[in-house]
Specification:
Shape of chain A: globular
Order of helices and strands of chain A: HHHHHHHEEHHHHHHH
Radius of gyration of chain B: 21 Å
Helix content of chain A: over 70%
CATH class of chain B: Mainly Alpha
Number of helices of chain A: 14
Largest sheet of chain B: 2 strands, antiparallel
CATH topology of chain B: ABC transporter involved in vitamin B12 uptake, BtuC
Strand content of chain B: under 5%
Strand order of the largest sheet of chain A: 1-2
Largest interface: A-B, 42 and 45 residues
CATH topology of chain A: ABC transporter involved in vitamin B12 uptake, BtuC
Number of domains of chain A: 1
Number of helices of chain B: 13
CATH architecture of chain A: Orthogonal Bundle
Radius of gyration of chain A: 21 Å
Number of strands of chain A: 2
Distance between the termini of chain B: 37 Å
Structural class of chain B: mainly alpha
Oligomer: heterodimer
Helix content of chain B: over 70%
Shape of chain B: globular
Strand content of chain A: under 5%
CATH class of chain A: Mainly Alpha
């Protein structure tokens, strides 16, 4: 029975990943029946590319949420990085590789600011990142000053990123998969990575074990900023037309992907793979709406409903599993010989 | 036998509470000083600032945020949060416009919209208290859901054919004074909630729930019902703010109120309310609402761009938590180290 309790988070995460895959299959089938063009390579890569951008940011957000924090500033980071990179490219200050490195570095810097506010200044993460959300967005507006950068201003090499691919698989998807894989291995297989779960599931116990939880939280915010920066670089290359309001409101999609992906908002359980799958799921919904010609106005309402259903499902599953575990324990106690623990 | 125990507990509790109270007292004094400073600086910046007309304008512009900050104060003190208020404003505005365009009398449409806001609040409350879900995620969900419904109802249209009696409620003033109507709503609501929160057993229950939820439950507080009522109140008041905003702009739009949640939460936290619940005063929040309004007005008069204003608001939000933290650490450091 101790094993069943210990593996509860893992079980939950696995269950969520498989049920998400199943749901996506059903959804795809339904959309395909109504609109056969769904399965065209052009449409599939379109869905995957858009989802990949959100997935990259969602992996970072998942790490933050695993430590019982939240990063609401991701969309402002994406927007600021996308605009800054595009601006530098337009002015020919940097060449494409240098601008990409700059963008990711800017994301890291913004993440470090968040991490410092949360760990050094002890500002609750929701307040700190709500504040930096408007500060970062304000900086983007300040930088842009009302102007916008269009596709023709950008060097072809940058825009080509969104169309690049290997053996028919878009570069963005490969990148998102690599990010998810590395992050998943990091939190799953390394000593420092496991501490992310420890800090989130029981901060007191983590402190007793000698885990420097503030360092873990700081690092995780840095990673989240870096990945949001990468997402910003990808965003700019994909959309081409960039204003200071780029990616406005995307934080909702990112957090929704994390929650739908089965990461517990109270930290300690869930997986980055789930978060990436969550991003793909939301992307499929958005694409499906377009293909079956439902009004785009429904999209946000559906995202909201999906978030609510996902957290409610989490609560129900956790409750049922805990009840099952305690019943098993009771059965084992009442009949020690017959206990099937 | 139990008497000495409770006595001990009480005296142990009194220490930190006294520290907190004195700190809060200072916080409100500080806000008052800031407010005064803003008036002086504003008057120096522009001759327009210290006129009745300007004060009337800046008050009218701040009232939607102010009105929503009042129930938000209670919710945050009770240890929860409601991020969905700005979307309730949008839904309220959209449905009001839709009903008016369909020929429904405003005497019917406004109560209907308030009921809708209450229903949205009830949904939040039930999901948080009955399903046991975290309010941060629930209200993030309804933030998207309600905004989505608003745009489904009205689409990209704007309804601006409201009668002048209604729009006068938005930008008109109380007869014979430069005070906008919405200030009256704010004052009445603030007075009622202030008395409820600080002078009745109901208010003490709100603080108790925020300080220690299980202790409050064992002491007989109906935690679920209390929180549900607070969310319903927040939804209703946000819908009212939507009506006021619609009247003030004399236009109903689905995207009305976008971004207001940030302003509301900023006002509450700047007012000295603890984000983790259990402490804060309504007076502090009221002062913070006016301080924010004056700051934005002074910045606008000084020709500071709106972008810089949003940076200033964000920094204020962070600063409102960092500064007390530093003060507390400084004091504790002086006492123990």
């Amino acid at each position: 029975m101790t094993t069943s309790l210990r593996s509860l988070p893992t079980l939950l995460a696995r269950q969520r990943e498989w049920s998400l895959l199943g749901l996506m299959l059903v959804l795809s089938l339904a959309v395909w029946l109504k609109a056969p063009q769904f399965l065209s390579p052009a449409n599939l890569s379109q869905v995957a590319i858009l989802a990949a951008i959100i997935a990259v940011a969602a992996v970072g957000e998942a790490l933050v949420v695993l430590t019982r924090n939240v990063d609401l500033s991701v969309d402002a980071t994406i927007g600021l990085v996308a605009y800054a990179v595009a601006d530098l490219l337009k002015l020919h200050t940097l060449d494409v590789p240098a601008a990409i490195v700059f963008g990711i570095g800017l994301g890291l810097l913004l993440g470090i600011v968040n991490g410092a506010l949360v760990t050094l200044c002890r500002v609750p993460s929701i307040v700190a990142t709500l504040g930096t959300l408007s500060v970062y967005r304000g900086c983007a507006y300040l930088l842009a000053g009302g102007s916008q950068i269009s596709l023709s201003d950008l060097p072809p090499a940058y825009v080509a990123l969104a169309r690049a691919g290997l053996l028919g698989v878009p570069l963005y998807v490969l990148l998102a998969a690599a990010v998810t894989l590395v992050a998943g291995l990091w939190v799953g297989r390394t000593r420092f990575g496991r501490q992310v779960y420890a800090v989130g599931s029981n901060p007191e116990a983590a402190a007793v074990l000698g885990i420097r939880s503030r360092l873990v939280v700081f690092v995780v915010f840095g990673i989240s900023g870096t990945l949001a920066g990468l997402a910003g670089v990808l965003w700019g290359a994909k959309y081409g037309t960039i204003t200071a309001a780029a990616a406005d409101g995307a934080v909702l999609q990112v957090v929704a992907a994390v929650v739908v992906g089965g990461v517990n908002i109270f930290g300690g359980s869930g997986s980055v793979v789930g978060a990436a799958l969550g991003a793909l799921f939301l992307g499929l919904i958005a694409n499906g709406l377009v293909l079956v010609r439902l009004s785009q106005f429904w999209l946000q309402a559906i995202y909201g409903a999906v978030i609510l259903v996902a957290v409610a499902a989490d609560a129900v599953i956790v409750r049922r599993m805990l009840r099952a575990a305690s019943e098993r324990r009771r059965a084992a106690q009442s009949a020690p010989g017959a206990g099937r623990a | 036998m139990s008497a000495p125990v409770t006595h001990q507990a009480r005296s142990a509790d009194a220490g930190p509470r006294r520290l907190e109270l004195s700190l809060l007292g200072r916080w409100e004094v500080l806000l008052g000083v800031v407010l005064l400073g803003l008036v002086i600086v504003g008057a120096r910046l522009s001759p327009v600032f210290a006129t009745a007309q300007n004060f009337s304008n800046l008050t009218a512009a701040a009232m939607e945020v102010g009105i929503m900050a009042l129930p938000m104060t209670l919710i945050i003190i009770a240890g929860e949060i409601d991020l969905s208020v700005e979307s309730t404003v949008g839904l309220s505005s959209a449905v009001l416009g839709w009903l008016w365009a369909a020929g429904v009398s405003l005497w019917l449409a406004v109560p209907a919209v308030l009921l809708l806001g209450a229903a949205g609040g009830l949904l939040n409350g039930l999901l948080v208290t009955r399903a046991g879900l975290p309010s941060l995620v629930v209200t993030l969900g309804t933030l998207a859901l309600l905004r989505g419904l608003a745009s489904v109802v009205l689409g990209p249209r704007a309804i601006s054919t409201f009668p002048t009696e209604f729009t006068a409620f938005g930008f008109g003033t109380l007869p014979g004074t430069p005070l906008p109507w919405s200030l009256l709503v704010f004052a009445l609501l603030g007075l009622v909630l202030g008395v409820l929160l600080h002078a009745t057993w109901l208010g003490r229950q709100v603080f108790a729930v925020g300080k220690n939820q299980s202790a409050a439950r064992y002491a007989g507080v109906r935690v679920r019902r209390l929180k549900t009522v607070l969310f319903v109140l927040s939804g209703t008041v946000a819908a009212l703010a939507g009506v006021i905003l619609t009247a003030r702009l004399s236009s109903a739009r689905a995207d009305a109120g976008q971004g207001l949640t940030l302003a509301v939460v900023t006002a509450v936290l700047l007012g000295g309310v603890d984000i983790f619940g259990g402490s804060g005063t309504l007076l502090g929040v009221v002062l913070a609402v006016f301080a924010l309004a004056m700051l934005q007005n002074a910045l606008r008069l000084a020709d500071v761009s709106t972008q810089l204003q949003s940076i200033a608001v964000g920094l204020l939000l962070i600063g409102s938590v960092v500064v007390p933290n530093v003060v507390i650490r400084f004091r504790r450091g002086g006492g123990t180290r």
